[in-house]
Amino acid sequence: MGNPLFERKPLSLLLEELKGENRLRRVLGPVTLTSLGVGAVIGTGIFVLTGVAAHDKAGPGVILSFVAAGIACIFAALCYAEFASMVPVAGSAYTYAYATLGELFAWIIGWDLVLEYAVGSSTVAHGWSAHFQDLLGSFGVHIPYAFGNAPFDFDIGAGRFFPTGAYFDVAAIAITCIITAVLIKGIRESAGFNAGMVMVKLAIVFFVIIVGAFYIDPKNWQPFAPYGYTGISFFGRTLFGQTGANGAPLGVLAGAAVIFFAYIGFDSVSTHAEEARNPKRDVPIGIIASLIICTVLYILVSGVLTGMVPADQININAPVSDAFRQKGLPWAQRLIDVGAITGITSVLLVMMLSQPRVLLAMARDGLVPPSFFGAIHEKFRTPYKSTMLTGLFVSLMAAFLPLRILAELTNIGTLLAFTIVCAAVLIMRKKHPEAARPFRAPFVPFVPVAGILSCLLLMFSLPEENWWRLIIWLLLGFIIYFSYGRRHSVLAKLRQAEAGKQG
Fold first, then answer.
1. Global pTM value
2. N or C end: fewer C-beta atoms under 10 angstroms in the chain?
3. What is the mean pLDDT of the chain?
């Protein structure tokens, strides 16, 4: 008998779970899934993080940062698509890891996805609040400063935290509560709500590209990469590229590590495989189509933004709308703020939609209490208890933590998830070559190996403190797993039952 920590969940057991009553409703088609992916990808990346990466890390070279991050995501997306077609159940990378790497790795990735989606949602809520306040401000209405910001922030130049004088961000709390209520109501309503918002924000994105192109000054692209084309470090020691005042790497790859957060939407598509009408075909289409569409739009918008405004003058909280304000177009600023609010709302909806489904998969396996995290509403058929808990957690983090910390913490968790999924494809091809694969990632082993290396490269481009935050988060997860999950695991109970029969 092998080590129970690395016992894999059989594919047959995964598929058997879909036959029970405690499963989700299959209502999503390829267009809706693509819309969910675009809904999660286009939003905070364009309307918020573009400014952070250009201002703090890469300058106009942020255009290439999006290319680098997009290439890493393409490798990971192909691996996700293969797994999603094989195992069309809730849980995304967590489920894939359980089927290939074993229970301990499944817990690691599941706990990591909690970090990715919950903290990512908090980042999005923070960006929503910034644009909402910017829109109100254009009409002369202002939320009191004490209730419009996090109580502290990080000075990138001095490399230290400082108090802002605010108490908490009330707008971030409000939007999180509204989204939570919508999600509890149901997946069909949530998907329809998202589709409408996606159409609005795509229209605004095209407006930014077309109108903004007339205000581009090529001089703003010089120098194109003021900090170089690299920006790679290892635990605080810069290996390639320049170093900022706080010891963090600067350059195009350092910028790619920051804006990588913008691409996690295709991951959320795979979490909804159980709700897809034809998951073996529709989920790969949704993953790949949303990634291609969004990568092109990101490159175009980042080029327009850095061409309109010098990188050091970009407003990191509302970069796109403020660029139009600087060009004397207040009406456009308001229009873009409306589009940004709509776009970021859809990102928040999709990310908060995904988090409870990961917890649902973990609850089915007994790794977290199923009575709470596995509870499905009798009428709405949604995991309502974990949705409410997610809403509470997201609102608190969005209200009290600053944007820079939230964005970078999300990125390292996302990159770890992508790395494990790419590795799992290699293992699954070797261990179970006979398994049905309606969609096969091409050029294996090149694609998964390239995915692993590119994701690790971007992880090393993040500041040292992000590694320590990840390590602390994983240690907390190990405490929960060894004190609860390991003893209540469904596989552990099956193993004990078999041992009892043999005895």
1. 0.79
2. C
3. 82
